[in-house]
Amino acid sequence: MSFSAANKVTFTSAVDATVFTSWSDTAISTQVPTGAVTGNVVVTSDTNYTSNGVNFTLASAVPNNPTSLDQFKDVGLTQAIAIGGSASSTPIYLKMTMQAALSGGMLYPQVEYKAIGTPFVCTDVAVCASDALEGTGSAGPGPTPGSVSIPPNPSAETGEVYHWQARVKHTKNAVDYYSAWVSFDDVNPETATDFKIDIIAPVISGTSSGTPGTNSASITWSTSGEISTTRIEYDTAGTFTGGYDCAGTSECTALTDTSPMINSPHTVALSNLSSGTTYHYRVRSKDAAGNESIDPSTGDYTFPTATENHPAKTTVAVIFNDPLQVTTATTTYFTVHVPELSPTVQSAYIEVVGLVSGGFSGTITVQANSAASRAYTVSTAASTPTLYRFVYPISSPGTETNLNLNDVAPCSNSVVPGTPPGCNKVVLTPSTGSINVLSAKIITTYSYTP
Q: Please, what are the domains in the chain?
């Protein structure tokens, strides 16, 4: 038996099936015709026999709107471009998730992109073949990923900003069904930038090493118009052969571009440099799209660190090594010998080591020359002798009245310069009882003219 005017299956809205698969006493198999809608289905046999209507729900072949829209710099879809973000090369890869309610058929991703200021052309379920770009299809019903590569061609002078929209095409039984168009992220309006193609590297200017110190330098430069990273390569040989990751150089800052992007100026502080040494350097800045400038583009800049004209030295001198039992203010004279020319004292400390016992509890006051005095608390249990150690800083040690070098006039804290007992004195005063002092020494740090 075949379909005819006398033997047929009629769907709601008087649409008859046209493709017959099988017919038996208990079942009919047919393809749902185009134009059929949800409603009653009636079977007619030999013209005069009409069945009761049976409700039929039509599953639509129209696919769901695409979801999870995203944009990437690479075909592997690992380098995402943030909304409004930049890429330095094309193509750009636009991704979505596709799904249809009806199984079977093929799902195809479609996108339309335009420069900002140019409205979308594809606005409904029409084919829109002139502007819709289509990616590789996947078997339905999904969900399944789909992506489309697009080849924007921005102006080499200015770059370009773009927006895009996407939809899903479901091809089933040689018929194409389309979802609605969805703007990127379904929240970014048509007038907002989805991505930018930026092929212009930052312009570096004003590179300077300022006035380097003996072991430090501050390198500065400016970049115009956009934020970018801050990096510098430097060494004493100028062997800058490395590429983007600074490979092949002896020293490089911010190897992985972790420095924050800034406008201008860029500053890198170099430390732990060698004095009296010429350093070679070049600076690098990379924008958000990955375009990098290196200044100078060939060769390098140089700067010399200052020569150290005033080296420093630390000396230790013994004040006394013979134990003293101090019960009242006790004065000891000493000399600090410095052989270098024009010494300038930077710091001086007296270290005192002693022993307390017999349940002593009190303070011992230390004063060197006319410097400020300082009291130190010491104590011990009655049956437990206790060692103590404290370091007394001499205030303003660069003044002769607080610290005399080499027993020279005016020898404010003694009687005769250059003769014993020395032009410096330290006075130890216990607050109560008796205290044992085992030794004392002075540690002096000074600079000098070589």
A: 8-56 (no CATH), 67-197 (2.60.40), 203-304 (2.60.40.10), 312-449 (2.60.120)
